[in-house]
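S.,

Sequence below, as promised.
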Amino acid sequence: MNTRPDPDDLLERVMRDEERQARGRLKIFFGFSAGVGKTFAMLEAAQALAAQGIDVVAGVVETHGRAETEAQLAGIARLPMRMVAYRNRQLPEFDLDAALERKPGVILVDELAHSNVPGSRHAKRWQDIDELLRAGIDVYTTLNVQHIESLNDVVGQITGIRVFETVPDHVFDEADDVKLVDIPPDELLTRLKEGKVYLPQQAEKAGRNFFRKGNLIALREIALRRTADRVDADMRQYRADRSIAQLWQARERIVVAVGSGAGEERLIREAARLAAKLQAEWLAVHVDLPRDRQAMSARERVVGYLKLAQSLGAETASISGEDLSAALLQFARSRNAGKLVIGQQVGGLRRLWRWPRGTLAQRIAGSGEEIDLYTVARSRSARINEDRAADSAASAAEALLTRRRRTRGTLWAVASCAVTTGLAFVLDGKLHPANVIMLYLVGVMLVAMRYGRSASALVSVLSVLSFDFFFVDPRFSITVSDVQYLLTLAVMLAVSLFISSLTSRLRRQASVAMQREARAANLYMLGKELSALLTLDQILEIGRRHLAAVFGARIAFFLPDSADQLRQAEPEQEGSGAHVLRSVDAGVAQWVYDNGQAAGKGTATLPSAAALYLPLTATMRTRGVLAFAIEAPSEEERQLAAAQLALPENRQMLEIFCSQIAMAIERLHYAEVAQDALVTMESERLRNSLLSAISHDLRTPLTSLVGSADVLAANARLDDDARAMARTISEQSQKMVGLMNNLLDMARLQAGVVTLNRQWNALEELTGSALRLLSKALEGRQVETRIAPDLPLLRVDAVLLERVLANLVENAIKYSPSGSGIAISAHVEDSDGSAQVKVCVSDHGRGFPPAMAQHAFEKFTRGDNESSTPGVGLGLAICRAIIEAHQGRIWIAPQEAGQGATVCFTLPVETQPALPEE
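The prediction came back faster than expected:
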């Protein structure tokens, strides 16, 4: 056995090692649930590194208030968090730029699956970590099993809770080290009851839902299996890197060899039952031999067999090889499979043909002593009956095209033999008979290169007969006078057949290699061109052109709108629609987009459709749908091309093209999102600066105007009309001062420069203070307060919360009839296991328009755009900013039309302060 390493593999390994040395190392502390100790284990490892003198920095560490976890941070430098403005709130986020500038030896970034605040450089924290790794910084992070993308739905079915923060599988698989942090479920439940996982109220609710013992046992098994899969992949990579051919059967794995003949279903089902009995992984592989030119019916059967194996839980593959037994053994060793299942035909004349080389089972047993071999008998009569069954339309089309090729090959074989015979006859007497034989062999080789094995075999026989008839004595007779010529003719026939077979095989191998090279080149060019495109229309046009060049098809793209409804994307430029598919079914495309699965021609879903519909799936979501229909000169060639497209290698190539296009669309989408976010942030900053400047510049003259008007109104020497005019000036100026205060407060809140002075306050006192501020505006109105007597104290900024109550009451005054009542209610309610104070302000006006409920809290939003009601629409926006700064929530309660408006907000109840001892 040749154990020399492949030079290409060595080069790839060297390049991979160089790239790995340039990147930082990623270590994931992996667990099956929150509370198993991932963060604690990460900090323990960080302390060990710090003791060795390595520069360790905590970028993000979520201790969740656990004292023992917080203690592990002692002595480790912390990176300050970056505050990001989002919906009038300042939220802390990981400061990626500060980490890159600091460039520590190891940085701790907790919660790998975390979603960053909109407006951040990356949407996900794992993308931040990838940038750190590219900068050469080692990263320690944590991850729970439910956040792995491929396991997200499985965990959701078990627990009934679906998480939406996920990490692509390749991030987990490409990590340099994964440490499983595991504890028994009973111990985790004990930690939960002791309050070491969540706060007591949250722990009680979690124990009733996610943290049930059955859920934890299932999650633990999934995490252990996923870790074992990674360890198995590392072992196989180690064996490949060191060219170790010997099997290391650390895990049961079965390979079943799938042929192209009829009756392979039994073989596949037997392998599936064996895998289930042994609880082993199994793989179904088909070997494409260059010497076997399979009919379309055989290739269709191979596709069906691989689909059957995949439906039974197998991983499928289609490989090429010169020798069947060698290819199977190499594949089994590369996948570290210790068991091989093959089919064994019973009876038939093929035994005599196989006798010199031995059966497949004998050849495998002789070369693969370390592999257990299983043979499954197949009935010869069943194979004959199934082979005689009616073929598909594609098979009939291939048969018609094959007959046409064979007819052309036959004509060329006869013509070649005739031309060679004529040339040799003209040169008769001048050429030795051996040279005449060489002329015939040249003709055999030319025909084999152009028309394949059948035509070359025919020209071989015709050449031998022509040579005997025209150039061997007695001439013009097939009899031979010299016995030695019998040996000459036999050798000539054998050499001709050998040359024809060898040339045909080389021709087929060259054709396959050219096709693969062309597709690889197209895939490379597609990726290269897509990486430089800046518009969506350019991406779609490049995709159409490359798909048409490789597969000879017409293409249609469907893209979603804001409501996730698909629309067909038309070419932007005239004359660029040469490869556009017009006859498409938008309903099929919408189904493919909604379900993320292929449908249409050649699939099990809507197979009667005229085109094949494939989802354009990117990293984060499905970006659209590709409709694909083969274009061919005739119906027979179209059916044949469609059947060839269903072959695994062709379908895989098509899916790679779709993935490249989807990734380009997603890259463009996020570039546009980032640009929009930047423009929005700059616009907000400019507007806030302008508001702040205007407010400051107008505040001083307005204050002077109010003071002067008050002095005039109090001057007894002026007549009544003058004093009344001065009072009017004072009132209107005070309204302008209130407007300027609103503008200034909004600018300060947006800029994040407001620091909350949180003290313990009684809501009754804050409500009374707000009502006293509005005493003049409330003249003639009755205000009803329904505040629960056992309402706890609130730890809030009294000035700001008083402003919220005043704004809500003032809003009720503006938009309700004069003299109508206003109600203020407050009580404690339980929300998601935590206590909150709910406060509502109600009036008896017209209420909020239905279309306005979602936008009422945005800046400069008014109930009536063209109204005499004073105000610029900042009151509710300020209320939302203040309430969210207190970790609360504000909303418009649903009311029937004409029944008034009710605005409610909630504030968290914190542990009450201890009363001073007397």
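Residues 27 and 177 are 5 Å apart (CA to CA).

Coffee later?
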